[in-house]
């Protein structure tokens, strides 16, 4: 296992380990995908264009979404050998956890190929940098940012553990309905929090209702 330190921009805030199966293969824990679909509504044809071995796509299919899954590398799931950045097929939605060293390119390409929503699981630090402000946020502000109250821990396949992570992540959701409407644009982005208790082995009970009223004990560490 080696340290992950790509030379390309943007670099992760913390070093990540690279698996032996190819660059940036970090399957998303089920609970993190489930949290997205519990709070965001998706309908129509949806692509998971960096599907890895299907950890995220399987959850999306289970909740009833019409998913097309692909990846550049062969990981025994979906179509393989598909470089998302070279694809031209239009979908209603794109949902993925992209390779972080080309997350910016993934986002801009995803926006150009979608009619409804783009949802990317990204480091919260994606919000930073004058370059992204110029290249992305000025023209394409996200509609919602769903910050994980409990940290998502990513490990190479087979090494998932229940420990806390050191990096903050969020679901960033771009909704074309907001981007295409001058009035709606003025009220975005909205920052929301995925409640405590979603993560397996969490000490907090899962609050199933959106906007559920939290008690003081829910907020204590
Ligand atoms: C962080 S992993 C996420 C896997 C999966 N989306 C999940 O959440 O479980 C990123 C994936 O992007 C794939 N990938 C890297 N570059 C790609 C590209 N240009 N086009 C499509 N997939 C790519 C990698 O092979 C890897 O499986």
Report what the structure shows.
This protein has 221 residues and is an alpha/beta fold. It is built from seven helices and ten strands. The protein has helices at residues 30-39, 55-62, 103-112, 130-137, 176-179, 182-185, 216-219; strands spanning 2-4, 16-18, 45-48, 66-71, 79-80, 91-96, 114-123, 144-148, 169-175, 190-194. It has an eight-stranded mixed sheet with strand order 5-4-3-6-7-9-8-10, sandwiched between helices. Helix 1 packs across helix 2 (55-62). The protein is globular, with a radius of gyration of 17 Å. Mean pLDDT is 84; it is low at 1-21.
Summarize the structure.
With 221 residues, this protein is an alpha/beta fold. Helices cover 22% and strands 23% of the residues. Helix 3 (103-112) links the parallel strand 6 and strand 7 (114-123).
Draw up the topology in text.
Layout: E1 2-4, E2 16-18, H1 30-39, E3 45-48, H2 55-62, E4 66-71, E5 79-80, E6 91-96, H3 103-112, E7 114-123, H4 130-137, E8 144-148, E9 169-175, H5 176-179, H6 182-185, E10 190-194, H7 216-219
Helix pairs in contact: 1-2
S-adenosylmethionine (SAM) binds next to helix 2.
Roughly how much helix do the residues carry, as a percent range? 10-25%
Give the C-alpha Rg: 17 Å
Q: Which sequence of SSEs, written as H and E, runs from N to C?
A: EEHEHEEEHEHEEHHEH
- What is the class in the CATH system? Alpha Beta
Q: How many structural domains in the coordinates?
A: 1
CATH level-four homologous superfamily name: Vaccinia Virus protein VP39
Mean pLDDT over the residues: 84
Structural class: alpha/beta
What is the tally of beta strands?
10
CATH topology: Rossmann fold
The portion of residues forming beta strands comes to 15-25%
**Oligomer category:** single chain
């Amino acid at each position: 296992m080696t340290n992950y330190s790509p030379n390309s921009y943007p670099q992760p805030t913390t070093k990540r380990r690279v698996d032996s199966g190819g660059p940036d293969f970090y399957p998303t824990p089920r609970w993190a995908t489930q949290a997205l679909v519990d709070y965001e509504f998706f309908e129509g044809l949806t692509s998971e264009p960096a599907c890895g071995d299907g950890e995220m796509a399987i959850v999306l299919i289970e909740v009833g979404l019409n998913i097309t899954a692909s990846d550049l590398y062969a990981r025994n799931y979906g179509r393989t050998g598909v470089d998302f950045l070279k694809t031209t097929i239009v979908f209603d939605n794109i949902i993925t956890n992209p390779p972080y060293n080309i997350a910016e390119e993934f986002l801009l390409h995803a926006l150009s190929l979608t009619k409804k929503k783009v949802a990317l699981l990204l480091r919260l630090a994606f919000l930073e940098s004058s370059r992204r402000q110029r290249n992305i946020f000025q023209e394409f502000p996200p509609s919602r940012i769903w910050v994980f109250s409990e940290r998502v821990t990513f490990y190479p396949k087979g090494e998932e553990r229940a420990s806390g992570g050191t990096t903050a992540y969020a679901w960033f959701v771009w909704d074309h309905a907001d981007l295409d409407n001058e009035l709606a644009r003025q009220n975005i982005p909205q920052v929301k929090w995925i409640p405590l208790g979603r993560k397996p082995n969490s000490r907090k009970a899962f609050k199933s209702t959106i906007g559920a009223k939290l008690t003081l004990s829910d907020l204590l560490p």
